[in-house]
Design the sequence.
């Protein structure tokens, strides 16, 4: 019993982390139609930057926010200087972002070498709570809480503010939105930057239990991809639901059927692709 | 002669290699309504799209209230006070009615007498107020047209370009759209009305221009046009 509930908390916290990673991926893919294969690199680079700051003795939250801010800059540069020129050319975007992810992976290997780094959990969030005779690590609970809070914040931003409506107008009909005076290109850059920052934030948040190592990017990207296909591109609620489903399948799959862990992860995605290609909560493209 | 609100001089435009506008010149006087007529495919929409920066002109000049515009970018033209009610309405279908209006809101010029805001649009189109939280895609054609007009007004424009606002609407809705256009003109707005509905245009317009295969073939008053049946017959295909 205790094992199962701990597994559940671990699943939910992995789900929270996956949401932070895939929310941006989903918005970038669903709204801007950019298949951003560097999203895992944003996660890994953020995690490495955070780990370096932590090694220098900075506060955990400062490290997480600084890594996110760095990714706003890097993401913004990539979008403005490179992706912008490839608007509408999905194959070119795939090749560019894939290529950049290799470049970033090599640069990380040069800077941080191949040894994994495992930052300590932040002191304020160490330990656990004991209820119902079980022990829940506070850090994991905090990740769940942060993910849900950010999900709410994003939902309000996109669905309930004028800014969010302007972004959606740009998605509906970009040329007409521009004619109405909406600065579509700036808004899309902002969406891309927010996505990159969230990925980096997730990278730092996850580093105490995932650790940071070469190949972390390639481990995370497929998870984001599955989440978004499962939940529906562009749907934040879909990303949230998909993240928790994948978090559960990942943990329970590895605990119960370690040999089939990947089958269990990818099977739901295949089913969704066959039965409901727009994803569980995705809108049908009109 | 009224001051010029918008003028196109010798404008050329292409889609790829196909030459669509062959040196079009139009002049819209301040506070006036210019009716722009022409057959299907004559180049009317292209004139509008060039003016709002959706299509880049190759050769020619555009002036807005006497200022010449270098490169027409949509955001720039919008900030210069040009608004478009596009052909086919092109409202933001997944946004609610209210959101469609809110996203287009722009502060009016300081000397504006009656600035536009969501409430004022709803006063003009009470049916939109009833449907304000509905998705715009679920509106009827007439309601969508009203939303497209309201959305354009939210930018507090000085020049309004309307591209076939009566297209595909029932006669009583066309009459309502006509009354709205007359009212907007009465408030001093300078308007270009692109239409295939000759009767509606002649009722509303101060000046008329006819465009045929990318060239202006007639420019004058509605009276002058009506006096010369042959022009209508030759260029508008009404026999
Ligand atoms: N996006 C486009 N690509 C290629 N050719 C186009 C495009 N849009 C219009 N054309 C062509 O340019 C010419 C002028 O079209 P335009 O839409 O300006 O005509 P119009 O006068 O507005 O016609 P209508 O009354 O049917 O709206 C037509 O021959 C049309 O086929
Ligand atoms: Mg047209």
Sequence:
């Amino acid at each position: 019993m205790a094992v199962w509930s701990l597994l559940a908390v671990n699943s939910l916290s992995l789900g929270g982390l996956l949401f932070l990673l895939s929310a941006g991926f989903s918005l970038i893919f669903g709204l801007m139609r950019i298949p951003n294969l560097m999203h895992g690199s944003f996660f890994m680079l953020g995690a490495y930057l955070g780990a370096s700051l932590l090694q220098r003795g900075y506060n955990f939250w400062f490290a997480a926010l600084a890594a996110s801010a760095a990714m706003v800059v890097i993401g913004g540069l990539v979008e403005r200087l490179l992706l912008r020129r490839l608007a509408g050319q999905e194959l070119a975007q795939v090749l560019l972002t894939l290529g950049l992810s290799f470049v970033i992976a090599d640069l990380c290997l040069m800077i941080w070498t191949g040894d994994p780094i495992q930052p300590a959990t932040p002191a304020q969030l160490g330990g656990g709570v004991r209820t119902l005779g079980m022990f829940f690590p506070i850090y994991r609970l905090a990740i769940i809480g942060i993910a849900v809070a950010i999900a709410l914040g994003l939902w309000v931003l996109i669905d309930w503010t004028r800014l969010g409506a302007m972004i959606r107008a740009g998605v509906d009909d970009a040329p007409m939105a521009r004619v109405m005076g909406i600065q579509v290109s700036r808004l899309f850059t902002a969406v891309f930057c927010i996505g990159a920052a969230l990925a980096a934030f997730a990278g730092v948040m996850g580093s105490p239990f995932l650790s940071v190592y070469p190949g972390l990017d390639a481990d995370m990207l497929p998870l984001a991809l599955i989440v978004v296909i499962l939940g529906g591109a562009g749907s934040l609620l879909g990303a949230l639901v998909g993240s928790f489903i994948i978090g559960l399948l990942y943990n329970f799959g590895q605990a119960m059927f370690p040999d089939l862990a990947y089958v269990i992860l990818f099977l739901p995605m295949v089913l969704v692709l066959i039965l409901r290609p727009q994803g569980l909560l995705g809108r049908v493209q009109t | 002669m009224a001051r010029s609100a918008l003028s196109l001089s010798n404008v050329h435009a292409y889609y790829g290699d196909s030459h669509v506008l062959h040196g079009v010149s139009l002049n819209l006087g301040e506070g006036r309504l210019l009716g722009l007529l022409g057959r299907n495919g004559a180049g009317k929409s292209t004139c509008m799209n060039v003016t709002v920066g959706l299509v880049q002109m190759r050769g020619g000049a555009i002036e807005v209230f006497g200022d010449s515009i270098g490169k027409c970018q949509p955001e720039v033209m919008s900030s210069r006070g040009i608004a478009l009610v596009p052909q086919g309405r092109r409202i933001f279908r997944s946004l609610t009615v209210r959101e469609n209006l809110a996203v287009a809101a722009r502060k009016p010029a300081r000397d504006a007498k009656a600035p536009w805001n969501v409430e004022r649009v709803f006063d003009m189109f009470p049916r939109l107020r009833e449907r304000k939280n509905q998705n715009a895609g679920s509106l009827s054609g007439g309601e969508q047209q009203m939303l497209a007009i309201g959305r354009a007004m939210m930018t507090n424009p000085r020049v309004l370009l309307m591209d076939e606002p009566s297209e595909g609407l029932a006669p009583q809705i066309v009459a309502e759209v006509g009354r709205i256009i007359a009212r907007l003109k009465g408030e001093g707005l300078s308007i270009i009305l692109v239409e295939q509905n000759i009767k509606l245009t002649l009722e509303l317009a101060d000046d008329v221009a006819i465009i045929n295969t990318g060239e202006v073939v007639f420019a004058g008053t509605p009276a002058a046009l009506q006096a010369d049946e042959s022009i209508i017959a030759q260029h508008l295909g009404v026999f």
Summary: Residues 20-214 of chain A form one domain. The two ends of chain A are 47 Å apart (CA to CA). The longest helix of chain A spans residues 2-32.
